[in-house]
Write a structure and sequence with these properties.
Layout: E1 7-8, E2 14-16, E3 27-29, E4 49-52, H1 54-63, E5 71-73, E6 79-83, E7 95-102, E8 110-116, E9 119-123, H2 131-134, E10 144-147, H3 161-174, E11 179-184, H4 190-200, E12 204-206, H5 208-216, E13 224-226, E14 245-249, H6 253-259, E15 265-270, E16 273-274, E17 279-280, E18 285-286, E19 298-301, H7 309-319, E20 324-326, H8 332-338, H9 355-362, E21 381-386, E22 391-397, E23 404-406, E24 409-410, H10 441-451, H11 455-458, H12 464-479
Parallel strand pairs: 2-3, 3-4, 4-5, 6-23, 9-10, 10-20, 11-14, 11-15, 12-13, 15-19
Antiparallel strand pairs: 1-2, 6-7, 7-8, 8-9, 16-17, 18-19, 21-22, 22-23, 22-24
Helix pairs in contact: 10-12
């Protein structure tokens, strides 16, 4: 998955899982907090506003150090109206409707469905198809889906999570006296920990860092217990329970076994990917050789948070998109060969980017964003204040359409509103008769256009007509003295 570079919705200021500088982009959506989807996202990142779920926000603020003031929290199952121009979602502006679906991947993972002048686009991020969670997408005519095609190969079949859990039970039944160590990645497979804690009626020992990660992921506190000495102290068997449960990284399995001397261990690595064969694992496989210490066997169980090949086929058959773009670029040919026949026949969506959106894409990136405060009732408005950033945070729910309207309102540089002139005024009249500074919207646009290069024109992805229109807009605002 290292070849992923994220998604750019052409003709819009929207990016998904892409954190490098992109011409015109200022709205950035994060599907989940795995490191291959946050490449380029650092504590100093300042290119725009980040939209993600609450769990993902907690993870990236603590682990990466992202400024919380740049994050807007979206709830799974909710629909939002995001402003694409300087009106920030107010009436009369250009908006995109965003619906958030559970990706059934790791804690906090989300799928984003975008609807606007550009058509209907679904970005799955990493996901595992579940008819109960995803069949609601059948109601949408999706023009393009950016699809998680990690296991898109006819040989990559593996069982459901429920069947994989049964295989874990079978392994443990073969070693009833052994303590259990689960080798995990940083985030993911938390459902397995919950099932083991419930089965044995005791929490799993974890490092303090993993304990904090599990808290961020909203895992119940009774599932795990922090042990500061788990990796640095040798433990005696005396005083330990009859069967010890430990969750750690895969590289820490042998370290934990060596620290708990006098005890036999069975180690389980939950993953559907087998590096040795470069293929999917269909059943439980013992990783240690026959000559290895039989007292501490290691098993790999095909427990996956990605969709298997049959599940991907079922998902596309249900969705019937007009086009598919893989997020793992290397298998683009396989996607069209295996899934192309399942797409519906439809003409490509033709659209032109609205002028107000183009102007916003030419403007400097916003200084800071805000956290969304979600209103629970239509027509109700909630507001909160961040004294550190001095930014007003606002989310409005439209009484007519029941959609949350999310848009930042900064106290620093003014936001342009092409339909409401008073919002352009950022300074009071001079008492010396010098007139009113920045009183007209045209002058604000003038100043911004003169401070920043016309990046839109330099992008090779833009249509020549779009670049020509952007040039005309730039020249008009730079040469016009009065509105």
């Amino acid at each position: 998955m290292a070849d992923r570079t994220g998604v750019v919705l052409e003709g819009t200021p929207i990016c998904v899982d892409r954190w490098c500088r992109t011409d015109g982009a200022h709205l950035f959506f994060l599907t989940h907090a795995h490191t291959d989807h946050t490449v380029g996202l650092t504590a100093l990142w300042n290119l725009g506003t980040i939209y993600c779920t609450k769990i993902t926000a907690a993870l990236i603020t603590r682990k990466i150090g992202v400024d919380p003031g740049r994050i807007v929290i979206l709830e799974v199952g909710s629909v939002y109206s995001i402003g694409l121009d300087h009106t920030q979602g107010e009436r009369g502006g250009v908006t995109a409707k965003v619906t958030v679906f559970d990706a059934n991947h790791c804690p906090g993972a989300a799928m984003f469905l975008f609807e606007g002048y550009f058509g209907t686009i679904l970005c799955t991020g990493d996901f595992r198809y579940s008819p109960e969670l995803h069949n609601g997408l059948r109601a949408y005519f999706v023009d393009r889906v950016y699809l998680d095609n990690t296991f898109l190969d006819k040989t990559r079949w593996f069982p459901s999570r429920e069947e994989a859990l049964k295989q874990v039970d079978e392994v443990l039944a073969r070693h009833p006296e052994h303590s259990v160590a689960i080798g995990l990645t940083n985030i993911g497979k938390e459902r397995l920990l919950v099932a083991l804690a419930a089965k044995f009626g005791q929490p799993l020992l974890v490092t303090p860092e993993r304990a904090q990660t599990l808290k961020d992921c909203d895992v119940p506190s009774g599932v795990f217990q922090a042990d500061p000495g788990l990796l640095v102290e040798e433990k005696s068997v005396a005083g330990m329970g009859a069967r010890q449960l430990v969750a750690c990284s895969r590289s820490e399995l042998k370290t934990i076994q060596s620290h708990c001397r006098g005890r036999s261990w069975v180690s389980i690595v939950p993953s559907a990917w087998c590096p040795a064969t470069q293929a999917a694992l269909t059943g439980t496989e013992r990783l240690d050789s026959d000559s290895a210490d039989s007292g501490s066997p290691v098993y790999q169980v095909p427990y996956s948070d990605h969709s298997s090949f049959p599940e991907l086929v079922a998902f596309v058959e249900m969705l019937r998109p007009a086009a598919i773009t893989p997020i793992v670029r290397a298998s683009n040919t396989a996607v069209h060969r295996l899934l192309g026949p399942l797409c519906r026949e439809s003409d490509p969506v033709e659209f032109s980017t609205p002028p107000s959106v183009l102007l916003r894409m030419l403007a400097p990136e916003p200084a800071l964003a805000k956290n969304a405060v979600i209103s629970e009732a239509p027509g109700r408005m909630k507001r909160s204040w961040s004294f550190d950033n001095q930014i007003r945070k606002k989310t409005r729910v439209d009484a007519e359409d029941g959609v949350d309207h999310v848009g930042p309102e900064q106290n620093g540089e003014p936001d342009l509103n092409l339909t409401d002139e008073p919002q352009f005024r950022t300074r009071k009249k001079n008492t010396d008769g010098g007139g009113e500074a920045f009183d007209q919207p045209i002058k604000v646009i003038q100043e911004r256009a003169s401070r920043r290069p016309l990046q839109l024109m330099q992008s090779p992805r833009r249509h020549p007509a779009t670049m020509a229109f952007a040039l005309l807009c730039r020249d008009f605002f730079l040469q016009c003295d009065e509105p």
